[in-house]
């Protein structure tokens, strides 16, 4: 690896001795002659330069070994060069030899021809060029450096060191407009790898071109104006059409801001075109990211080395006497301290270092990495009689995870303090000087920490404050004093540092987060076909684009046209350049090998114009349906409209500039026909609106590890119309069943009042049945599935409210994606675009993101978080729903009725299962082969205790019919027992009691008869013998027939009891609310399931990687169910808040009866895209999601087994709070407290089950040491979660004084893997503010965003959270927000005003 480095070292030792013998200040000294004497020796560089590439590869190979890597880091540290790496040192000789030609060229320039050293200087210049020209790398570097030096020679008035002293290549150059200090000037800019230079063009000079006789080249004559080192350079994008202070009021186009950190000066640069601007910004950010990654890597390596080395040194030093002990200094005792000078001597004596200089460097490294510190934190480490202490001895040492926990604690404390109704952080008025804003005294902070239960006493509160102070989360207002429990010392949280001044806030925003671009995209899934997708992808100049589209292909049928920009492929954003055409081709091939739909996100404007020329027959190829507005239902293949990129689902806004959004269907058809006749030659002009679109906000933010990308994606909930349609279909079937079962009682009922109640109930059910049937057909229509449900607050939709009432308003799926760009030469761990499938593709592809058996992309997804926001049901629904009588009892009756029918259906299904296995057992016995048994054959056997649904198990051998018969008897018995338990429930007994005046059968008589019949039929099954035969099949069938009447009797009494209790007018309102919330739940679950199947879902960052966390979540929901967490930030100043909360509470209670089952799609189903259907009624709902086989194969066995039986059950919770204190006349605090307390109990129980499941001994390794390590790893996130739940409970007890529990509940739900849904009356304002707050918190908790950056990032995300249409309407903001909400929930445009008045 080091090649002949010793020969080079020997050469320079001799060279140094020769230089020392020359009188350098003497004019006649001959430096070149001395070098000429050693000229032959410089040939040793040839061997080293040729070997350099091999040496670098060897170094990277060695560095994979942690021990060797630590050794390298230690060498650089002790050598006093911790700011660089060994590989950089390996390259130093190559860099050095390339500088010699430039040095001798410069020396020749200042050496007169009559000087005795002139000839030798010329010879050395030729000699050094000859040495460098042998190795290609050095030759290229010399040429680059010469070009830089030649350029610098043309610059007049150059100031500072030469460019070649710090730079090795030129990255970019160009002419830009510079706006600074009120002046607008044209300047020439030159970007080097370490320097940005700008000059003024003053004319042209003519230079002879090298190697071309008589050729003269005109070069701009430029004058030096300024330079900025890249490390001192910051850039911020400026959106077109905007102006600010730094642009001198000039409206900017193609511009960005530049900040010189060293001088704290700003100026604005303008490029000629948008691509040129992007090129400059990408180049500067790329240089800064590269430097940041290098610095972060060195820092991380040093920290890991010092952590291990510090522990060893500490243990060794403790065993030595008279080193670590109690020491007195200035009458003060310092326990367990040691002297710096003695420590240095001990390190040298022990051989840890070679000399005292290295010992001081080691001591300083230990101090900087938190291993030791000065006893009063007043000194760095010095070789003097100063006292130091190891942090292990005073309890202040913090592991990396502990430091992260402190940052998370600090964030929680800050958010909760900012959410208080009575401000703790406020302005302190001083008697002398200016007032201190946004501060809190040490004693008040301690008081509050003890009050809310974060600590148990004041001493712990002080220690926590000191930790926050040490980590830079809290600081003293004027100096660096420690945190103390004092009423006279005031502190400020670092996120508030930018609040006093808007200028400081803007500067902090620039330093922290930058808005890169906003995109509107359309997601398409191109179905796989045997002939391929019919599309190629290519890398355009600025982004990935569609290369070509084959005629008649699936891609063309989706409305895709060439040259469309692509924002993402699958889950990965590829809108930035850097992916080769070969990589893109392999991405497409990989999807095809998996027979999966090709998922593309195409950049698309919400509205677009196009002119369509009719075909020869006068056809446009459009099939139009609907009215107000009309919508494209489908397109003819290869038609003129399809070739123009028109898509099914587009609404028609205008035809030949004539608005048709309020026209009927017949009127639109007439206009189209007339336009075709009039403009057959030039074509018909259309303006279309795209329905299914995504909005993507792309940001770049500064994290501890370097710059990262943040994508905030908002889209219409994918199942916005499908789930309501399927729910209405299932509910209509249920109402039909109830009507049929209640109809006979009308003839027998003699009491008129009771008969009228039942008749009214049946009539209402009949009306709902007819209405829901029509709604199902309408919502299933292609038109509505492609039309967005977004409705601004208070605005009615043209289609009419009745049709869309079951559809949630403003139900949006939000995705927060955090990525980090990876250099193409640094491969990282693999992950998936879609679930894994075998692929014949050659994956030996250069690139950084290696997919299993597939291609590579240049981004790494660090975190992917889905959220759902929705509007609460309308006021009409709330008013009627709140008037329902005895809601809880009705829900219990409905749930029990569904359970009884479900248990009976399981008994009926047993007959077909037994018959199927009898046939296959006979085949096995006849053939003696197991080939006739499908691998998917399963048998329902041996259910769990308490009559719960059966589990599935595949028989090891069906040839043993006696064994099968035993399993049949056990399985049937468990089914019958479960049915009887359901019939004996308390709800059934109450139903019989409430209807005994109408029907004479008593509860005891029915249950007794049921048990007698069941026992008799089970005896008949036992009498069939020990061998499985046709006789057993008949016996099971007789059992089902015998129990059918009892199932009908119990169901009838339950339905009759419901008819007597339920208010018929409230049925529709309950269905509407249930449909809307079920849609939101399914939307969130499907997105999390999709991420988990792609190994991208990770609620446990940073404790687990995404692959492990995804699998853990899938098995978790199979074992303990799915947590569904609703968050409802209420206004607090509206009298209607109470009915909203009451509706939420009632509807979510019904959600406990929802189960989600997963089934495989049949191979004959089209497109192989996930579909769903709904079974049952509101109280016992079953949502069946059908997945492609490739995704079903990726599911854990336990989840497949559960899905085949009862399914994944839901555990819904709701946490709510008012954003401002409610007026006394309609205080809803009592209702909120009741809702939150019940939800907390569910949350705590879910956590208890989650902990029990994850620490189950059956899931841990048998080896004791491995078990202990596994328990420690699993316990870390669980213990952190336990603390969070405890804080949530304390916050709930003090909820009268703030809304901090909303953020705590949200964090707990995310960490537990719950589906998180935020609901408010509009589904836009308070939901968006809550979402921005949670996204900012996630960036700090999981992705290295410093706590001090909380404010600017939160305000930036708020700006992108609200739709532009809504942001402009201030009156709607006032309607959606209370008068004085907490500062963190205020819309971004109002934040500056509230920041200035906060605490007054």
Summarize the entry for a quick read.
The protein has 1400 residues and is α+β, with helices and mostly antiparallel strands.
Question: Please, could you describe this protein's structure?
Answer:
The strands form 9 sheets. The protein has a 14-stranded mixed β-sheet with strand order 21-20-22-17-29-30-31-34-42-37-41-38-40-39, with helices on both faces. Helix 5 runs antiparallel to helix 6, helix 25 crosses helix 31 (1067-1093) and helix 29 (1003-1022) packs antiparallel against helix 30 (1030-1061). It is globular. The chain is of the alpha+beta class and 1400 residues long. The protein is 47% helix and 19% strand.
Tell me, rounded to a whole number, the average pLDDT.
78
**Rg, nearest Å:** 38 Å
User: Which class of secondary structure composition applies to the elements?
Assistant: alpha+beta
Sheet of most strands: 14 strands, mixed
Please give the count of helices: 43
Helix proportion range:
40-55%
Strand arrangement within the widest β-sheet reads 21-20-22-17-29-30-31-34-42-37-41-38-40-39
* Low-pLDDT runs: 500-505, 782-801, 822-856, 880-885, 930-959, 1364-1370, 1391-1400
Number of strands: 42
Distance between the termini: 67 Å
* Large-scale geometry: globular
Strand percentage: 15-25%
């Amino acid at each position: 690896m080091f090649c002949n480095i010793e020969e080079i070292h020997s050469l320079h030792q001799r060279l140094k001795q020769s230089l020392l013998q020359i009188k350098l200040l003497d004019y006649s000294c001959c430096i070149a002659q001395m070098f000429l004497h050693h000229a032959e020796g410089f040939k040793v560089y040839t061997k080293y330069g040729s070997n350099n590439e091999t040496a670098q590869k060897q170094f990277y190979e060695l560095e994979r070994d942690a021990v060797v890597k630590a050794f390298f880091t230690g060498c650089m540290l002790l050598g006093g060069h911790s700011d660089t790496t060994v590989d950089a040192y390996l390259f130093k000789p190559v860099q050095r030899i390339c500088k010699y030609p430039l040095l001798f060229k410069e020396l020749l320039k200042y050496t007169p021809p009559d000087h005795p050293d002139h000839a030798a200087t010329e010879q050395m210049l030729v000699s050094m060029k000859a040495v460098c020209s042998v190795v290609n790398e050095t030759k290229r570097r010399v040429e680059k450096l010469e070009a830089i030096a030649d350029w610098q020679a043309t610059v007049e008035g150059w100031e500072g060191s030469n460019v070649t002293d710090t730079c090795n290549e030129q990255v970019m150059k160009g002419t830009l407009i510079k706006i600074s200090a009120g002046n607008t000037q044209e300047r020439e800019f030159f970007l080097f790898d370490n320097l940005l230079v700008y000059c003024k063009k003053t004319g042209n000079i003519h230079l002879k071109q090298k190697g071309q006789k008589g050729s003269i080249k005109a070069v701009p004559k430029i004058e030096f104006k300024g330079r900025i080192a890249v490390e001192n350079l910051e850039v911020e994008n400026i959106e077109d059409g905007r102006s600010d202070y730094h642009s001198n009021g000039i409206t900017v186009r193609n511009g960005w801001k530049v900040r010189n950190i060293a001088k704290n000066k700003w100026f604005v640069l303008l490029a000629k075109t948008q691509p040129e601007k992007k090129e400059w910004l990408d180049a500067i950010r790329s240089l800064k990211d590269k430097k940041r990654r290098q610095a972060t890597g060195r820092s991380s390596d040093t920290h890991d080395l010092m952590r291990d080395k510090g522990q060893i040194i500490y243990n060794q030093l403790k065993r030595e006497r008279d080193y670590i002990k109690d020491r007195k200094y200035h009458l003060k005792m310092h326990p367990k301290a040691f002297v710096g000078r003695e420590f240095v001597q001990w390190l040298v004596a022990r051989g840890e270092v070679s000399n005292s200089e290295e010992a001081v460097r080691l001591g300083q490294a230990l101090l900087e990495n938190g291993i030791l510190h000065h006893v009063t934190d007043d000194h760095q480490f010095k070789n003097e009689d100063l006292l130091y202490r190891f942090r292990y001895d005073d309890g202040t040492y913090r592991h990396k995870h502990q430091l992260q926990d402190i940052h998370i604690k600090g964030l929680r404390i800050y958010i909760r303090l900012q959410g208080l109704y009575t401000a703790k952080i406020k302005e302190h008025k001083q008697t002398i000087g200016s007032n201190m804003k946004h501060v809190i005294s040490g004693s008040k902070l301690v008081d509050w920490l003890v009050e809310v239960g974060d600590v148990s006493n004041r001493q712990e509160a002080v220690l926590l404050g000191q930790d926050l102070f040490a980590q830079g989360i809290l600081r003293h207002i004027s100096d660096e004093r420690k945190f103390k429990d004092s009423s006279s010392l005031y502190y400020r949280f670092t996120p508030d540092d930018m609040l006093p001044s808007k200028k400081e806030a803007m500067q902090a925003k620039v330093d922290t987060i930058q808005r890169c671009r906003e995109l509107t995209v359309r997601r398409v899934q191109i179905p796989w076909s045997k002939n391929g997708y019919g599309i190629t992808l290519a890398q355009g100049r600025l982004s990935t684009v569609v290369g070509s589209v084959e005629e008649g292909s699936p891609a063309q049928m989706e409305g895709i046209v060439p040259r469309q920009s692509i924002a993402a492929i699958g889950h990965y954003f590829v809108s930035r350049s850097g992916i080769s055409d070969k990589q893109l081709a392999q991405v497409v091939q990989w999807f095809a090998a998996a027979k999966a739909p090709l998922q593309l996100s195409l950049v698309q404007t919400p509205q677009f114009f196009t002119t369509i020329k009719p075909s020869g027959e006068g056809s446009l190829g459009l099939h139009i349906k609907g009215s107000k507005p009309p919508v494209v239902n489908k397109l003819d293949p290869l038609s003129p409209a399809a070739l123009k990129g028109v898509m099914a689902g587009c609404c028609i806004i205008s035809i030949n500039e004539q608005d048709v959004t309020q026209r009927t269907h017949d009127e639109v058809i007439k206009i189209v026909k007339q336009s075709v006749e009039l403009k057959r030659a030039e074509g018909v002009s259309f303006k279309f609106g795209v329905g299914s679109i995504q909005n993507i906000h792309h940001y770049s933010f500064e994290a501890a590890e370097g710059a990262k990308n943040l994508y905030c994606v908002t889209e219409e909930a994918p199942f916005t119309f499908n789930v309501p349609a399927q729910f209405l279909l299932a509910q209509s079937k249920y109402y039909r069943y109830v009507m049929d079962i209640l109809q006979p009682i009308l003839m027998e009922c003699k009491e008129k009042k009771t008969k009228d109640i039942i008749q009214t109930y049946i009539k209402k059910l009949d009306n709902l049945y007819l209405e829901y049937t029509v709604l199902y057909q309408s919502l299933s229509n292609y038109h509505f599935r492609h039309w967005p449900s977004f409705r601004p607050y208070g605005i009615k939709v043209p289609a009419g409210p009745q049709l869309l009432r079951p559809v949630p308003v403003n139900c949006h799926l939000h995705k927060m994606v955090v990525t980090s760009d990876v250099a193409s030469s640094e491969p990282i761990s693999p992950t998936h675009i879609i679930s894994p499938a075998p692929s014949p593709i050659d994956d030996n592809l250069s690139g950084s993101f290696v997919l299993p058996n597939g291609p590579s992309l240049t981004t790494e997804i660090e975190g992917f978080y889905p959220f759902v926001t929705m509007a609460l049901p309308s006021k009409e629904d709330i008013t009627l729903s709140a008037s329902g009588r005895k809601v809880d009892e009705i829900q219990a009756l409905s749930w029990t009725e569904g359970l009884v029918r479900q248990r009976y259906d399981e008994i009926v299904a047993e007959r077909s299962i037994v018959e199927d296995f009898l046939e296959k057992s006979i085949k096995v016995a006849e053939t003696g082969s197991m080939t006739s048994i499908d691998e998917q054959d399963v048998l329902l056997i041996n259910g769990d205790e308490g009559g719960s649904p059966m589990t599935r198990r595949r028989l090891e051998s069906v040839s043993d019919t006696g064994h099968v018969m035993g399993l049949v008897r056990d399985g049937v018995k468990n089914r019958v027992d479960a049915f009887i338990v359901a019939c004996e429930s308390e709800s059934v007994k109450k139903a019989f009691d409430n209807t005994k005046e109408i029907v004479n059968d008593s509860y005891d008589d029915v249950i007794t008869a049921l048990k007698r019949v069941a026992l008799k039929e089970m005896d008949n099954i036992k009498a069939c013998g020990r061998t499985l035969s046709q006789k057993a099949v008949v016996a099971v069938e007789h059992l089902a027939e015998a129990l059918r009447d009892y199932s009908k009797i119990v169901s009838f009494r339950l339905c009759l009891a419901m008819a007597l209790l339920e208010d018929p007018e409230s049925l529709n309102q309950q269905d509407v609310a249930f449909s809307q919330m079920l849609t939101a739940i399914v939307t969130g679950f499907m997105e999390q399931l999709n991420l988990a199947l792609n190994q991208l879902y990770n609620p446990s960052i940073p404790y687990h990687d995404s692959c492990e966390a995804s699998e853990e979540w899938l098995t978790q929901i199979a074992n303990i169910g799915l947590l569904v967490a609703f968050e409802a930030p209420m206004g607090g100043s509206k009298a209607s808040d109470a009915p909203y909360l009451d509706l939420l509470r009632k509807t979510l209670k019904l959600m406990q009866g929802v189960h989600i089952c997963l089934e495989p799609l049949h191979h004959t189903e089209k497109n192989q895209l996930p579909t769903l259907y709904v079974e049952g009624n509101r109280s016992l709902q079953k949502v069946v999601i059908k997945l492609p086989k490739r995704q079903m194969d990726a599911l854990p066995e336990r989840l497949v087994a559960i899905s085949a039986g009862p399914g994944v059950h839901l555990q819904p919770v709701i946490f709510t709070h008012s954003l401002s204190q409610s007026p006394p006349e309609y205080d809803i605090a009592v209702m909120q407290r009741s809702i939150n307390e019940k939800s907390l109990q569910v949350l705590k129980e879910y956590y208890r089950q989650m902990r029990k499941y994850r620490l189950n001994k059956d899931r841990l390794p048998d080896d004791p040491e491995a078990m202990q390590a596994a328990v420690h790893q699993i316990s870390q996130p669980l213990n952190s979660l336990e603390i969070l739940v405890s804080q949530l409970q304390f916050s709930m007890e003090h909820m009268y004084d703030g809304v901090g529990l909303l953020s705590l509940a949200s964090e707990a739900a995310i960490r537990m893997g719950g589906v998180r849904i935020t609901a408010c009356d509009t589904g836009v304002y308070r939901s968006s503010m809550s979402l921005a707050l949670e996204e900012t918190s996630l960036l700090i908790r999981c992705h290295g965003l410093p706590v001090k950056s909380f404010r600017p990032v939160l305000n930036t995300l708020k700006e992108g959270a609200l739709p532009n249409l809504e942001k402009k309407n201030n009156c709607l903001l006032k309607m959606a927000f209370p008068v004085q909400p907490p500062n963190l929930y205020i819309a971004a445009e109002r934040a500056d005003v509230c920041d200035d008045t906060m605490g007054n």
